C-alpha cells in the first residue's frame, strides 16, 4: 500500500487550476524565487524545458510562474491576470521554450533582474504542488521546502554568518543543511538554512542582525 505524508499527497493542493504540477507547483516555484530575490524583479526570463515548454500556455504554467514572482499564492484569484498585472507594474517577462532535455520534465530556469542585481534559479515541479529548487546562481542545491527553511538576503560582510548561527545555537535550533552564495565580494548574498524546527520570533531576531535585509521562512 502506498504511503503518504499528508492528505495533500492524495488530493493535491488548494489552487487555481488546471494542473497541480503545471500550475500550483509553478506558482510556488515563482514565489520562492521572489522570496529569495527579496524584491519585485524588473525583468524576468523564463527558460522552459520539456513538458513545461510544450504546454506552458495551455496548462497555465505561464500565469502561475509570473503570479508567484509577483508574490501570489497558488490559490490567489488574481493568478489568471498575472501577466496583465506584471505588465502594468512595469515587469518585463520573456518566455523561452528550450528544446534540450532537463533533469526533470517540469523544469524552469528563472533569471530575475532588478537594477544591477541578478538571480538565476532552476526550479522543478515534482507533482501534487510539491517543488524543488535545484540550483541557485550556478550552485547545485536540493531545496524542497519539506522542512523548516529560513532564507536571508544580506550584504556580504564578515561576521553575518557567524551571528546567524550563534542565534540559532542560543535557541537550540539544529541546522540540517546550509547554503551560502553571493553575487560578488561585498555585494548581495543569500543564506538558505534548513532546520529541524521553527521557533516563534526567530525571523524578527534574524532581521535585527546587521547587514541582513530580508528574512523569509518556508515550511
Kindly describe this structure.
It is a single chain. This protein is α+β, with helices and mostly antiparallel strands and 219 residues long. Helices cover 28% and strands 35% of the residues. It has seven helices and ten strands. The strands form two sheets. The chain has a six-stranded mixed sheet. Strands 8-9-7-10 form a four-stranded antiparallel sheet, with helices on both faces. A hairpin with a 2-residue loop joins strand 5 and strand 6. Helix 2 runs parallel beside helix 4. It is globular and about 50 Å long. It starts with 7 loop residues before the first helix and ends with a strand. The N terminus is likely disordered.
How would you concisely characterize the structure shown here?
The protein has 219 residues and is an alpha+beta fold. It contains 7 helices and 10 strands. The strands form 2 sheets. It has a 6-stranded mixed β-sheet.
Q: Give the percentage of residues in beta strands.
A: 25-35%
Describe the strand arrangement of the main beta sheet, using strand numbers. 2-1-3-4-5-6
Q: How would you describe the shape?
A: globular
In whole angstroms, the N-to-C terminal distance is 27 Å
Keywords, please?
219 residues, six-stranded mixed sheet, 28% helix, disordered N terminus
Amino acid at each position: 500500500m502506498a504511503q503518504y505524508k499528508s492528505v495533500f499527497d492524495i488530493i493535491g493542493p488548494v489552487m487555481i487550476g488546471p494542473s497541480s504540477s503545471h500550475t500550483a507547483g509553478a506558482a510556488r516555484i515563482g514565489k520562492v524565487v521572489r522570496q529569495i530575490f527579496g524584491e519585485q524583479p524588473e525583468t524576468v526570463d523564463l527558460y522552459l524545458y520539456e513538458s513545461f515548454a510544450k504546454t506552458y500556455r495551455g496548462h497555465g504554467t505561464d500565469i502561475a510562474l509570473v503570479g508567484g514572482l509577483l508574490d501570489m499564492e497558488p490559490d490567489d484569484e488574481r493568478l489568471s491576470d498575472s501577466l496583465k498585472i506584471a505588465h502594468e507594474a512595469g515587469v518585463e517577462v520573456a518566455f523561452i521554450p528550450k528544446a534540450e532535455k532537463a533533469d526533470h520534465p517540469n523544469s524552469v530556469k528563472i533569471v530575475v533582474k532588478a537594477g544591477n542585481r541578478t538571480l538565476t534559479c532552476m526550479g522543478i515541479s515534482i507533482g501534487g504542488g510539491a517543488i524543488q529548487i535545484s540550483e541557485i546562481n550556478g550552485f547545485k542545491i536540493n531545496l524542497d521546502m519539506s522542512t523548516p527553511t529560513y532564507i536571508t538576503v544580506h550584504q556580504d560582510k564578515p561576521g553575518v554568518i557567524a551571528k546567524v548561527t550563534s542565534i540559532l545555537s542560543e535557541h537550540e535550533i539544529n541546522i540540517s543543511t546550509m547554503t551560502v552564495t553571493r553575487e560578488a565580494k561585498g555585494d548581495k548574498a543569500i543564506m538558505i538554512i534548513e532546520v529541524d524546527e521553527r521557533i516563534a520570533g526567530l525571523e524578527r531576531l534574524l532581521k535585527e542582525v546587521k547587514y541582513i535585509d530580508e528574512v523569509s521562512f518556508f515550511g
